[in-house]
Amino acid sequence: MAKKKSAAKTGFSLALLFVLAITAFFFANFKTVVVSGESMEPTFKPHDRVLASKAYWLVGSIQRKDVVVLRNAEGNGFFIKRVLGVGGDEIDAHNAPSDWSLLDGPYIVPEGHIYVIGDNADVSEDSRKFGPVSLNDVIGKVVVRQ
């Protein structure tokens, strides 16, 4: 009888440890963010939820056209944008929205940075306004809309 209780305790402890490990892995590598604003419409609407991976080894490095979650300048919130260029890319006004603000010709994205834009460029505040974003300010790459 004592062996059955001991085996049951061990089994329960292992199951609990497994659940805690999976939970810790999830919280360490993923972030759920609620979309606010209209800058990513029609792709994402206000109050949509997205799951972003902080673990690039799981989902690959940030590439052009990826959607990323960024820390805002004040550090107290997040915003979601699409990557238009990565370090070393030349951003050219010919491929940009009509309200493009870089009038002095092509722009080279610095290494270690990305250039982001909202899908709804007419209302988006993005790299056209605040410049390139350091990869250190990227919270994660959007992998799922919930």
From TrEMBL:
Pfam families: Peptidase_S26. PROSITE patterns: SPASE_I_1, SPASE_I_3. One of its GO terms (molecular function) is serine-type endopeptidase activity. GO terms for cellular component: plasma membrane. InterPro entries: LexA/Signal_pep-like_sf, Pept_S26A_signal_pept_1, Pept_S26A_signal_pept_1_CS, Pept_S26A_signal_pept_1_Ser-AS, Peptidase_S26. Keywords: Hydrolase, Protease. Its EC number is 3.4.21.89. It is found in: Cell membrane; Membrane. It comes from the Bacteria. Residues 14-95, 107-144 form the Peptidase S26 domain. The active site is at residues 39, 81. Transmembrane segments: none annotated. The keyword Protease applies. It catalyses: Cleavage of hydrophobic, N-terminal signal or leader sequences from secreted and periplasmic proteins. GO terms for biological process: signal peptide processing. It is a single-pass type II membrane protein. Belongs to the peptidase S26 family. This is Signal peptidase I.
